[in-house]
Amino acid sequence: QTELIFAEITVDPGAKPGRREIRVITKRGISNPLPFYIGQVPEVARKPMKTMQLPVLGKEHLAQRKRPRAEEEMRITIPCTMNGQIAAGEVNRYRFEARKGQRLVISAKARDLVPYVADAVPGWFQAVLRLRDASGKEVAYDDDFRSNPDPVIFFHVPDDGEYVLTINEALFRGRESFVYRMTVGELPFVTSIFPLGARAGAPAEIEMKGWNLEGAEYSLPSPDAEPGVYLVAAGGKDGHFSNRVAFALDTLPECFEQEPNDDPSHAQAVTLPVIVNGRANRPGDSDVFEVEGKAGETIVAEVNARRLGSPYDSFVEMTGADGKTIAMNDDHFDAASGLNTDHADSYLMVKLPADGKYFVHINDTRRHAGEEYAYRLRISPPRPDFVLRLLPSRIIMPSNGTGVVTVYAIRKDGFDGPIKLSFKDLPPGFSSPGVTLAAKQEVAKLSLRTVLKSLDMPVSVTVIGAAKGGGQDLVREAVPTEDKMQAFLWRHLLPADTLPVLVYDPAYQPPANRVRPPIRDEDRPKDVKPTLTRSSVEYYLRQLDNLYQEWLLTDQFVNREIANTEARLIKLLPVRRGL
């Protein structure tokens, strides 16, 4: 079975930098998605890792590509994005010139590219960055950016000269899936914003902190944007864009935390419902909010901080007027939070025992503080609601057949009503009976039927859930996901951008004798250094032919690759035998 695919991707010159979703589509199916990034600076790539033709258990080290010494270090010109793979025990080095006074941002994407590796601990490529000066002295180091495992180095260049940047895996593991993208340059980077959100439809201003943001402009969600979480970025004066950070919109009234409010005697009085935007101003800072309640009334206190990229690790406690604790919470698991593996946001839902004043306390459990330690604290009556996740993130159906997806309902603030699931505006040739999630039920199977024989290209569909909660109609769109396992145990629903559907003909067979045109002289490379044995060349040519016969490669692409491979054959001279 062929597992190697060569893809040639053409990027529109006007394409905006950022993340895209890439899948492999054949006549018989659709792959899971992986992220593909469009960069904004020049790029270089190392040669791909060579793996053994027949992996043998216990001899995995034979699968490594033995890099020549000339490939251990690359010289680059900044700004630059570097693409590579890490083999076991390997360290990749990049040498560049820098000028005194430059404010360099060095960021790596590793976990972000291949988020979860099922049989590895911690479950992803844990990248480590080091920067050394020309003498070999380490001048900067990082192995994560707050709760994000992908590291970022901020470096103010002290002197003109050469610097060497290295990347390796924290435990010196390695494999083909340990891929990275690393960018270095004087590029804008946002380290924090405040507040972390605003009321939908209301004017908002944010304070943005970071590196190389002089003259940068940012744009918030449009005034008519629906409630939700949006990603915003800063655009620099040189046309480069920063990283994207989360910004939340909600419908509730909002206010700012006001000091001093460190204890019940100085508590900040708030009127429910409300979202408080605050942050830890100093180590050990505790913010206290006073609310009025009645016996039997239910109040929710929910923190959004870590899920919005803040390093704030909340702890929430509710006390009565007598100072006694009624409820408390440190961490609350949110199955809908995607890549987040650090569920540090707190949540309380409390039924009040009597009329009177109550106090909501919030603080950072590690007693950390700073301008980046921001939070959004919702204090309100319950708002019954739900979100939907479905998997897998694609539907593959035979001719006149049926496909099935699993839908998960993540219920919020005590919502336990039935949810009617259906496909929205299906294209011709498709139908679905829908299904209803019964009260308190969390999982259901939703089927899709087709009368089509096949589709040349997939079509995207949407699943929605409808219910009644809190006296209003709730309609929520299901987010397609992939079920990923982390470190042998934990499972995560990783969001995808689309839910494609493909109908295939089970009787389809690819043409057995696809005829390749002759290789043109201009396709044959000149002055290529021979590096491959005859057996290696024959192996690669077989792989290329298999992919070509399955219509996964174009004529031009396969001819160019065949010519490159043949040109690298080591031609051995015949052995002279004695008379």
Provide a brief overview of the structure:
The chain has 579 residues and is mainly beta. Helix content is 6%, strand content 41%. The chain has a six-stranded mixed sheet, with no helix packed on it. A five-stranded mixed sheet has the order 5-7-14-9-12, with no helix packed on it. It has a five-stranded mixed sheet with strand order 6-8-13-10-11.
The chain-level structural class is mainly beta
Taking the sheet with the most strands, its summary is:
6 strands, mixed
Q: How much of the polypeptide forms β-strand, as a percent range?
A: 35-45%
- State the strand order across the main sheet: 36-38-34-32-42-43
The value of Rg in angstroms is 28 Å
Rounded mean pLDDT is: 92
**Alpha-carbon distance between the termini?**
49 Å
Counting DSSP H or I runs of 4 or more residues, the number of helices is 3
Helix content: under 10%
Task: Report what the structure shows.
- This protein has 579 residues and is mainly β.
- 6% of the residues lie in helices and 41% in strands.
- It is built from 3 helices and 44 strands.
- The strands form 12 sheets. It has a 6-stranded mixed β-sheet with strand order 36-38-34-32-42-43, with no helix packed on it. A 5-stranded mixed β-sheet has the order 5-7-14-9-12, with no helix packed on it.
- Strand 27 and strand 28 form a beta hairpin.
- Helix 2 runs antiparallel to helix 3.
- The longest helix is centred in the C-terminal third of the chain and has 16 residues.
- It is globular.
- The C terminus is likely disordered.
